[in-house]
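Escalation from tier 1.

The customer reports that the assembly of two entities below gives different structure tokens on two consecutive runs. Tier 1 could not reproduce it. I'm attaching the input and our single run for tier 2 to review.
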Amino acid sequence: MSKLRVHNIEAESGSNVVLGAAGDVVTLASDSIQTNLYKDSGGNTIFQSDGAGTLSNVNSGLSGAGPKLILSQTASSSTSISFTSGIDSTYDHYIFYCLNMHPSSDGVVFEWQVSTNGGSSYGVTMTSSAYRAYHYESDSGAGIAYVPADDLSNETDYQHAIEQVGNDSDQSCSGILQLFSPSSTVSVKTWLSHFNTCHKDNVTLDEYTSGYVNSTSAINAINFRMASGNVDAGTIKMYGVA
Amino acid sequence: MATIFTDNIGPRKPTQDITLGTTGETIVFPGNDLRVNTFKDKGGNTLWTSNGSGTLSSVNSGLKGNLALVSTQNPSGVASVGFTIDSTYDLYIFKLIDINPSADDTRITVNFSADGGSSFMTKTSTYFRVVHDVNNTSTGIAYDTGDDLAQSTANQKLCHGIGSAADECGAGDLYLFAPTSTTYVKHWFSTMNVYYPAAGGYSIECFTAGYSNTTSAINHVKYEIATGNFDGTIKMYGLS
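Tier 1 run:
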């Protein structure tokens, strides 16, 4: 077996250095290989590092089909939180995780609407249903019921995610909104929502809403807000699911 | 183009690095594969390491996606299992799979602790369920006041009683939001379906939700069967 001892190998001409030939296995007996850009033999980028360990252009096959974080936004005395980019045909399933949304006003509705014009306006027609379970901390009442005040019938109002969110320092609401095929120009857009909150009167509310955006125009923005006052704090994370 | 035929390229001096190409050049491997255990970027940051048997570690987060399997437990003949959680993730998702109790008609429960399981938090919750039996004689949706909690540290029932026969079980999930917040109470909700062993069998879908009414950080989640022991799988995921 011949062995070449060298410190540096560079291209004689052009910009390619070729190691091995078809059918060969190139084994690096060293501890590691270091480069920023990894491609397949067809020149397709597998992923790219900035040299500091932060990756970009990661091939979708590497990170699986689970939710991919597109954008996270944190409220700070905000009138609303809008996602005006990133909702497109890349994914046919979007999930919004809302964490500890805390209102400036006591006993307010946390609600949302969508846009077909990039957020210039929010008010697309929706039809929906709503029901919720409740239970007082004092154990003075509990039950489950449909909530007519939280549904929509081909209306352009904001959709209630959950009602009566308390604003004591430890009170907030958290939950999940799933939006399906928002970029479809063929069908209406269905969605599912599930939230839990501390009601202003110290009651746990568990609210389910679902419905459809009654439009064949593509949705490309969404706005979350409290029905009155600000969103004092809270984080909303938008994920796409391949 | 010059070609060198050799079987081995080694460093000119022991322990010295070998550099292939220069900035702007592309290294091409026309062969079938490239074999090495550790891949790094130019800055020397590890992208992943294989142990040589195909098991990877130190995988860069950019390659892993946002939903990470943190822990899997396969309880077998035990009364409870515990999971340790921290501030790495602000949303934890538990998948309860094929929970099979040793005692018939027994519920799986959950509880949350701020001190590693020594004591458990005060909770207020709701519980409702949808039922349908195999004989199509009973259907309905109802709230169950006996299964919710009002400022109680007791275990939260996640479902109706699960059958103990070999082919009977319950399964579902539980979402826990921002468990390590020290500002807010901790919201969670769960959905499970069980084989309820009565009158030939019922499908019961159980919905529980509520909050741990404390601003202390949760660091331990316990799943416990109400009576006897249980088998099954519980997976804990973190979403970053």
